[in-house]
Amino acid sequence: MSGSNGYLGATSFANDYGSNGVIHEIHTFGPTSVLDAFFGRNLGDADTGSDLPGVPAGFGNQLIQLGVSPNFESKFQGGQGPFIPGYTASGYVGGAGQTRQDTRYADNWTFGGNFTKILGRHTLKMGANFATNNTLSPIYNENANFTATPTQNPANATGIGDAFASLLLGLPDSANRRNVLVTEHGGWVNGGYFQDEFKVNSRLTVNLGLRWDLTLWPIYGNSPGSDAYVGDLDLAN
Question: What are the extents of the domains in the chain?
């Protein structure tokens, strides 16, 4: 779905995608042994942002040629960009420009199985299941805000200065850039069990079993080699 984001002809969008699938196999090893194995995939994805569909292709690069810094408009993680910045001139016009946020609210791989074996009066059951517990969300946007302050007369600011003049001169009052790849990795939800169903006699059956479950909390960070932050932190600059 989409709607206006402030500029004439500009749109905001929100698209949700979901898919899942499973492979299930039941195999009999003779009259007393059965294996039930499975493998599954579940993916849910929310793609949101804003766009300028009426802007010619390559307009972002034209802005760079006109003086907009490529470090502000492009060079996003994964080689994304350039994105057209959002501009706001107080009292005139404002809009979000081009923004992107792709959030995987479900990103799971799961597999496991159950095995049953009959030995005399014992029915032995055992199994395990493993499921990943991770996520991924790149977020890219940048905007600049223009006010009357940069074009005011320092000696007499009252009634002097204009936000649109500040925009035309390229003198922002504030600016923001977000370039993050939010990830969680290494997360698992695992479980295993063993059970013995022992038929003592025709009137009594005893069930003895043990189940073990473990949840490994995912690590918040870019990758296994950089877990301290999710943005484009550069301590040298």
Answer: 19-44+87-220
